[in-house]
Structures are given as C-alpha cells and as structure tokens.
Prior knowledge:
elongated, 16 strands, alpha/beta, Rossmann fold, 24 helices, 2 domains, five-stranded parallel sheet
Amino acid sequence: MFPKKVTQIKTLGQLKSAGYRSRSIKEELRENLIVKLKNKETLFQGILGFDQSVIPDIQRAILSRHNIILLGLRGQAKTRIARLMVDLLDEYVPFVAGSELNDDPLHPLSRYAKDTIAEKGNDTCIEWMHRSERYTEKLATPDVSIADLIGDVDPIKAASLKLPYSDERVIHFGLIPRSHRGLFVINELPDLQARIQVALFNILQERDIQIRGFKLRLPLDIQFVFTANPEDYTNRGAIVTPLKDRIESQILTHYPKSIETAKQITQQEARIAPAQKALIKVPEMVSTLIEQIAFEARGSEYIDAKSGVSARLSISAYENLISAAERRSIINNEKETTVRISDFIGVIPAITGKVELVYEGEQEGPAKVAQYLMGKAVRSMFTQYFPDPEKFKRKPDESPYKRIADWFKRGNSVDLLGDLSNRKYEEVLLNVPGLQELVKKYHHETDQEMKLLLMEFALHGLAEYSVLSKYVLDIGFQFKDLLSSMFTMSDDDEGEGGDESDLLRADMFR
C-alpha cells in the first residue's frame, strides 16, 4: 500500500519514494487471490454451478502461475469467467506516460520507455492504469493475421524517423504486445489458423516475437486465457499440439448439473422489466418447466450433442414466456395474470434458434422439435405433481383420471387458446368434469390461480401419457379423446394448421 493516493504520484522519483514494488501479472493474480481466499471473499461473482469444479481448478491454475484454456460447449460462461479474472488485479498500476506497451517504470520494456527514463531519470512522468484497462479480448476468426496479434513494420514510421526496418521504433505493435502487464483472451482458439497459432509458441514460452524476419526480444508480461469448444476441433479447426502443450492448465466447463442451479442462472440473467414483474406471476413450476426443456434438449436424439444447448436457450425462453403472458394481459386489458402452459407456444422461437439439429431433427423441422421437447419436459415433471398414469393402465377403473378420460371419450374437446382472458381460461378448465377434483385431491392447499395452472398442466401431462390426444394449433392447443381422434383423423385434417407433427403423434403411442 502507498502512503499517498495514487493520483498524487506523478513522477518516477515519487513512485520510488512511495515504496512501490513491481510484480509480474501472474504474481499479482496469485497474491491477490491468496488474500481473497484468506478473507473468504466471493470470487467470480455471478458464476453459478462451478463452485466445486471449475472455479477451484481456475484458482489452482492461478496459484501455479499458469496460462489457462477453458474448454466447453457454447453457453458455459467461459468468456464471462475470463472477464471476471480482472477483479484479481490491483486496482491501479503505474506506467511510463506515453508508452504504448504500458511499460513498468521500474522495469521498462520498450525503446521509448528506456530512452525516456535514461533522459529524464526520476523526473520521468508516470500515469496510472485501472484494472479494467488491462483486459484485451480477441475473437479468433480465420481472417486474423500476424499483424493483428503481434504487429508489423510501419513504413511511414520508418520514412518519417529515417530508421531501418530492423529498428523496433518502426514497428506498429499488435494486440498482444499492447496487452503487456494485462490479461489477453482469445476466444474460440480452434478457429485461429494453424500458422497464427504457431506464432504464439515463442510468446508463451521464450517471449520472443518475430516481425518481417527481424527477431525482437520482448519479455512480455501477460496472463493468457484461451477458450474453445472441444467438439469443434474436427469441424472448424484444431488447436495445434505444440500450442496445447504450452498452455499449462486445461479446464473443462460444463452445463448446470441441477435444475435448481439452472433456475438461478436464468433468474439472474433474464431481462425482465419491473412493469412485467408487477403484472405477471410466475409459479415455481413454470420456472422449473423452462429448465426441464433445456435438460431434455441436451439429451435429445434430435439435437446435435456436440454443438450443445446453451444456457441462453433457457434465458431467452423465460423472457419470451413472460412476454407471451404480458401480451395476453394487454390484449384482454387485465391488470395482472399468471403464466400458463398455453403461453409456452410463445417459447418456440426461443428454442428453434438455439439448437443444432441432426438429420432426423432437420427432417421434422425445428418448430416440431421444439414442441416435442416441451412435451417431453411436461412428461418428465408430471409424476412430481400427479400419480403416474402408467400404473393404472391395467386397472383403468381405479385411475384418478377416469372421469376426465370418460368425458373426452364422449366426443368432447377442449381448446386452450393463447389469448384467452383470465375469466374465459377458468371457464374452459372448469368445464372439464373431474379436472378440478383431481387438483383439489392432490394440491388442496394451493391458491386458485395455481389450481388452474395445475388443471391445465394435467391436460398436457395426460396427453403426453397417451390418455388424451393433443393438437398444436397456431394459437394454442386442442385436447381430444385419443382413440376417437385416431379414427376420425382424415387427410384434410392433417393438412390444417392444427395438425400434430409426426414427432408428437408418434409420442402419443409410447
């Protein structure tokens, strides 16, 4: 700690008198991490689900003074973790004023800083750089060049200064030298051309750089962090083996391992306006259902597991769900409402753009796969709220769903449209005999809004267990008796907007 405020220290002499001690960035990260660990401070604020896996690995890498590569599928917070490492840096560090390489006044690196200190000595002007200015991030793309990362000879400088190209003063430095004494992050490393990756070898180990054939010794002080999707090595490129060998710590990230952690991430990241929060009630069951869709997607045979299913799917789906309920309340001029299962029709656009389909999924189409995933999620959760319908297949007379199923067998149907008012929604559900009694029997302590949600959920669940049939309409869902709909379905019916996909229809006969 300095006896004066950093803003009061303006020269090299003042800096020496204040007792400033230079540290490499790896030592700086290490020592600051040790202090935070001893003080039980929260590290990597906002990163959830990695407390027992990724974060301890990162801490060990920092204590070992390692460069790091974070390997994981998309949407696993790799870049956010890299950005949060800045919090482990000192708040301010001094550098020689006018230096483009952020030269340490006590250990100058560039020709400019060395010449300035040799000329002015303790009167050399210094400035202070905040930790946020010591972070550089570059997305690796095939068009990234050596000049972008390391630098190139500037002929205009050479001409104006009348210097040969071999003089370092004519070099225009790239991003890496300009990140001296800071964090440098390369995202999607496999996308970097192999010849560019080779140029990083010496920087990581010998700290030499070569520009236009001129070898330049620059002992750069940089903490490197790389991110990559391991499955992309064979699709878009590869990390060359010698480069991987020089990155000391390879840390694997992962998706949330539990629904609860996934819900916390979504709640933290979703952008919900205060007006939406005041207008719309979101039961816990609905939040869980959103996450269950993502979990089903990660295990689905229709989705490419190598591509992954980002946490952004859940976040976008949650935002769309809230907006669907908001739109419905605006249309019906209602001051408050509760999210419904029928609002999930608005979630489909958030799913279709976030999943990479395999051939079978492409054949069905992204919208149908999204509907299929929602159905699978309902099925997975159904037995948490109601008895398993499978247990009553051999004893249908004992089934708690018998009265409901019998009503549909008599030719009745239910249309749950997305824009129904609260009053109409309640009226439609209460019109189904046995549905209200089913919810009261197993959830008698819940309020009326939750009872209605559970009644609708029961219909969707019974459809997933092939007790009823469910058709996806353009503006909602229709429920009918399973067998009668099988026999009455005509070719004309299948061509209408309310038909089921082959995926959903096959799922009815599980």
